[in-house]
Amino acid sequence: MTSLKGKIITVVGSGLIGRSWAMVFLSGGYKVKIYDNEPGQASGAITEISRKQIEELQRAKMLRGNLTAAQQLSLLSSHDDLQQALEGAFFVQVWFMVSPLNGDDFLLTQNCNWETEDKHLPDLYGTKVSHVRRRKCIISHLIVNPPYYVRLVELVPHPETLPAVMDVAYSLMTDVGQAPVRLSKEIDGFALNRVQYAIIAESWRLVQDGVISVKDIDLVMSEGLGMRYAFIGPIETMHLNAPEGMEDYLQRYTEGMKRVLNTFGPVPDFSGEPAARIVKEICELIPAEQQHLTVRRERRDQLLMELAKLKK
Prior knowledge:
With 312 residues, the protein is an alpha/beta fold.
């Protein structure tokens, strides 16, 4: 991709996800305009980004990119006027959809919070967006918190999306240090959630059926599968776990895998007595009061920061 450094990216929405996207793009050296339709929200987001995030990351030596905190912040501006925010942009990252986005001079991508929508690709591909605009639209699904450290982003085209648009988005995401993956079509839940829900369902069933405790099933992941899944995925794991690679693995383990998979129960409904029991058990380990959850979230983020540093 021809260098786009110095070009403008507009981020529509200044909440957690919008701020995270702004920080990611700043780390790549792009000028970022952040817009919010609530007056004062965008300027407040800049204060949050500068004082509590970028400068703190620099002190922790975890600031992404080659620019200092001051250099990155000099590229950031806030806007309460949408048209002003869109002026000069080649790429627009949307968190919430606003109506006057039908121009054809920028690539439009929406971060989709699938879990809270009636339809997993709600506005970006709907009637609000013109045919011309849909050709330059994609979904960029970045939903793992905190996204500054967990770099995966799923790129999903509309059937009318131009191939070159996917290429530009993929190159841009790579350029700013994300780990983009391409989905060839829409699928309910995206890739990450579908894999995550499979793990959640079987973990829930094992606890629900009295096979293992909440504490211990989490250890199965954090001290077992998660150790290698932090740097290689399930397919590579299969390939490496047999002396002669994937074909050898399938010959050795296919029947065993199918036998175990056939014992899996129905999809849990995550309610009733089993849910009450699991809620009680996890709350005994980590009370649900905000002060306890905040401590654990800060621990999670700190450990992810250290893991991101190690993976670098």
